[in-house]
Amino acid sequence: MKRLFIPFLILISVMFCDQATAQDKFSTSGRINISLGTGFGLYNLSTNQYDDPDNGALNGNLQLAADLGFIPLLTGGVMVFRNGFATDKDSNQRATIAGLGVYAHLNFARRPKTTWFLTAGVAGTVFTYENYDNKGKVSANGSHVFAGLGFRRYFGDHVGIFSEVHVAGYNYNTFVYKSDQNLKDQTLLTSSGNKFGIALAGAEVKFGVIVALGANSK
Known about the structure:
- The protein is mainly beta.
- It has one helix at residues 2-25; strands spanning 31-47, 55-71, 74-85, 93-110, 114-131, 136-154, 159-172, 176-179, 186-187, 198-214.
- The protein has one domain: Beta Barrel (Porin).
- The protein contains 1 helix and 10 strands; from the N terminus they run αββββββββββ.
- An 8-stranded antiparallel barrel has the order 1-2-3-4-5-6-7-10.
């Protein structure tokens, strides 16, 4: 039995070393990643207006991001993004969100060409709603938070694809109405006299291309 046990330990040790080597071949440390992506989000929209029912909201998004691998397990970066919301087909309305934020990846599974990670981030955003019929615009500053799961797959040393799924939220508490007919900005209020606010909570899917610079994935 002992004669069989010793070769078994040797085999396990070799397999473990091979796995560790495979992970080290794709070190996220020192890599600069630049990504360009698109996707969509589906949210529940609620307001603080009494008796105002919740609604659904659907958007398409564009995002440009850049990050750096600090250690094999941790990547951090910055992002800029724009979300455009679906409105009535024949309406003259447009609703958008623009944002700038930071994010981090916890790279829990690394392979020679693929990395799986947990991700989370926070951003400052600007919500804008425009109605071209009455030449009015409503805007608000707010926050965005998200957390989710993603992966990156490289097909060479530098070019690959990525995909992420997030649970996400947006929050806006002060809306200002601007109009060409009225030079004075107006803060929107609820029927009870409070500042009008909205919250968006839902899920986002993002995917796109990524270019890696720096550390070699060989």
